[in-house]
Amino acid sequence: MTGKKYDSVAQDGDLAQLIGRRHKSHFVILKAGAIFQTHRGELMHDDMIGKPWGSRLFSHTGNPFFLMRPGLSDLITDIKRNTQIIYPKDIGYIVMVMGIMPGVHVLEAGTGSGALTTAFAFLVGQTGKVTSYEKREQMQNLARNNLQRLGLLGRVILKLGDVEDGFEERDVDAVFLDLPNPYDYVDQVKASLKLGGFIGMILPTTNQVSKSVAALGSNNFTFIEVCEIMLRFYKPDWERLRPTDRMVAHTGYLVFARSVMEKPQEDEN
Question: Structure pTM?
Fold first, then answer.
């Protein structure tokens, strides 16, 4: 996960996903001579290193595991958490809209357990950077441990502080606010964000969205968008294909905008 290219076979130092019965996943950084221990038996790391991804392995008690390269969604949903994380369905849209790619500097307020921080760090690559503010030390420590476990901590600067005091950073490419009152901090974002840069927010209620849209408009942000993402899975039985009984519906309103020097006189937003 530190940015090195994955080969077709598992190598020493790779982060691997072991999927056992009932699709239960375990994540492990492969290390020669180490032993993976679970209640379904032990697997030697040496028996995994050099195996092609997708191989089926068996523990010493005969229980099967598939050796897989983990996807970003797998890593995010598996992180240890004290609060609700942002769902992968929302994260996917956030990083697409906000242009998160190798080399950019992303500023985040509200680290939480580090789910979105993980996605940002994964995508900015070795040449990019994530700066994340959190005022709760316990949450910051949890996020630090999650990032460390995935080998991504080196790309993230974790800052303990209140957004009310402002951001030290300037000329960042994108800012994301996961806060209950982001509308109070739009001026701080404006001071830190490049012209043309992206701001994003996630909010649970329409009242908060209304206040945020007003704050964005009054601080020379334009191209404002408000949306929500819904996701429905299907049961993968080709003879009886139908939706699953439950779906991931509303998880939050997403708000995006771009910073400009001066808004048009007749801004459609």
Answer: 0.84
